[in-house]
Write a structure and sequence with these properties.
- By secondary structure, the protein is α+β, with helices and mostly antiparallel strands.
- It has helices spanning 10-16, 46-54, 72-78, 115-120; strands spanning 18-31, 34-40, 58-66, 81-95, 102-110, 113-114, 126-133.
- The protein has a seven-stranded antiparallel β-sheet with strand order 2-1-7-3-4-5-6.
- A hairpin with a 2-residue loop joins strand 1 (18-31) and strand 2 (34-40).
- The two termini are 25 Å apart.
């Protein structure tokens, strides 16, 4: 059997996939002019990180949330959410000369799901977030 340019095997997908893992407490804090940016642990806002890492790519996302830090195995025992689909991530500052107002646009939709909204609903809780990028 010959392999044409449109035939992709599961092995080909696994070879090209990379996995990103973010874990820590979900917090809402200031980042520049954004007074309610979401962070996982610390560093940069998660929407800004993912805008650079995965925007426009096909991904599958798994995350587990708990009231306290746990191992992945412990988290899997509690509950599991799977999200699949394309990514629309945006994190940028905007300014209006007309109003003199500066604000930050922050958006992270994966497979039509508002991931930032789901994270915001779990502030102060521990998260283990895995993203497979294809």
């Amino acid at each position: 059997m010959t392999k044409d340019k449109y035939f992709v095997t599961f092995v080909d997908i696994i070879k090209t996939m990379k996995q990103l893992i973010y874990k820590g407490t979900i917090i809402e804090s200031d980042s520049g002019e954004n007074c309610d940016a979401l962070f996982i642990g610390g560093g940069m806002p998660i929407a800004e990180i993912l805008q650079h890492e995965i925007n426009g790519k096909e991904v599958s996302v798994r995350y587990w949330i708990s009231d306290k830090e746990k191992t992945k195995e412990e988290l899997q025992e509690n509950f599991l959410k799977n999200l699949f689909g394309a990514v629309d991530a945006e994190y940028r500052d905007a300014y209006s000369d007309y109003t003199g107002y500066l604000w930050t646009n922050e958006n992270l939709e994966i497979g039509g799901h508002d991931l930032l909204g789901e994270l915001r609903g779990n502030l102060g809780k521990f998260i283990w977030l895995e993203i497979d990028v294809y």
